[in-house]
What we know:
By secondary structure, the protein is an all-alpha fold.
Amino acid sequence: MQAQTFTLDDAGPAPAGHAASIKFFHWATVIAIVAAAAAVLLRELIDDKTLRLILIETHRSFGVVVLMLMAGRLVARRVSGHASAAQDLGPLPRIGAALTHLALYGLMAGLPLLGWALTNANGKAVRLLGLIELPRIVAADLDLADSLADWHLRAAWALLIVVLAHAGAALWHHFFRRDAVLVAMLPRRR
Length: 190
């Protein structure tokens, strides 16, 4: 028996597809989340105080970028509509997909807001790109900062779990269902 290979070109017919703006916000958000995570994780490996400060400011800036991308993503989704790439699924998988997306949106908005509040509670300002100081959303309060730090970390772990489930579902669609759900979100090849 000969092994079958499967390429992106072998996917079934493309679903209604996602608008270019949706794809842009999706992948820009992925990049911003990875950059925020990389900055904070790298910070833990560095001893130099100046570099650690730069990394935490980078982490905060990318958190604000994620928040801005989420706002843009919601507007783009409202304007272009949402093309469901998995309409042929039964009701339970569709409900699971909807709940996963709801969790993703909630965590991608909530995690930066928790970080912003945490920074403010520690008596610091959040700056976008180190230049634009954002308004304070909570007053300085070290007890609140401790609680927010716990919530921020829990939300980060929750986001990781939901992102892994989301990516796993996309791969399941691609390799097992052999439909075009994954391909529908990929940037267009020329």
